[in-house]
TrEMBL record:
InterPro entries: HNH (IPR002711), HNH_nuc (IPR003615). The lineage of its organism: Bacteria, Pseudomonadati, Pseudomonadota, Betaproteobacteria, Burkholderiales. It comes from Ramlibacter albus. The keyword Transit peptide does not apply. Residues 131-186 form the HNH domain. Keywords: Endonuclease, Hydrolase, Nuclease. This is HNH endonuclease.
Length: 202
């Protein structure tokens, strides 16, 4: 984790700030020393501690209040941990090819974009696994087969991001089902998730 690239540390800081704005208390220590901020270093870490806690404000605390708070704090700690993991590279075809006979050979140029599994995991840890446009839950519908599955939509298309664009996984990413994801990209620029949700309610 100490060898993560600078963008991972920026993601960590953004998630930490977002959690604290939501009322969580986040404690981070490296090798036993509290760390208000994390930055790239050449000195290996032997141990990192990440704790998240939140006070329950309610006239009468129920089991559901406790469960929801524990789940939220766990999600915060998991998202922070995952944000410091390495990224993966995927290949995305920029344009599809039309008007060619089946089986014809053609040369297709693609652009390579870097997507971070840590950003995806942090998005899901914060927003959950239910589609934010239509409410579809793969786990509830498909059982074990769909458990843990959801697609993640970039509010700013990856192809439009510059090399220095910093992705905030809470603000810039949002979980959606495959159908809604396809509908969002029927327009250019993509439709806002909130607009699609409004249309579906109509």
């Amino acid at each position: 984790m100490w060898r993560s690239d600078p963008s991972a540390f920026k993601t960590f800081a953004a998630l930490r700030t977002s959690a604290e704005w939501d009322g969580s208390r986040v404690y981070v220590a490296v090798d036993g020393v509290p760390a208000p901020e994390l930055a790239p270093t050449t000195e290996p870490w032997r141990k990192i501690e990440i704790e998240a806690s939140k006070r329950i404000v309610a006239a009468k605390v129920t089991d559901n209040d406790v469960f929801d708070t524990v789940l939220e704090c766990t999600s915060v700690a998991l998202g922070l941990t995952l944000s410091l993991l390495v990224s993966e590279e995927v290949v995305s075809a920029e344009d599809d090819v039309r008007g060619l006979p089946e089986g014809a050979r053609t040369r297709i140029e693609v652009n390579r974009y870097e997507r971070s599994p840590a950003n995806r995991a942090a998005c899901i840890a914060h927003h959950g696994l239910v589609c934010k446009a239509c409410g579809f839950d793969f786990g509830a519908f498909y059982g074990d087969l769909g458990s843990g599955y959801i697609q993640v939509h970039h509010r700013v298309p990856v192809s439009k991001m510059g090399e220095d664009y910093f992705v905030n996984p809470v603000a810039d990413l949002i979980p959606v089902c495959a159908n809604c994801h396809a509908m969002l990209h029927r327009s250019d620029p993509p439709m806002e998730v909130e607009e699609l949700a409004r249309r579906l309610k109509q």
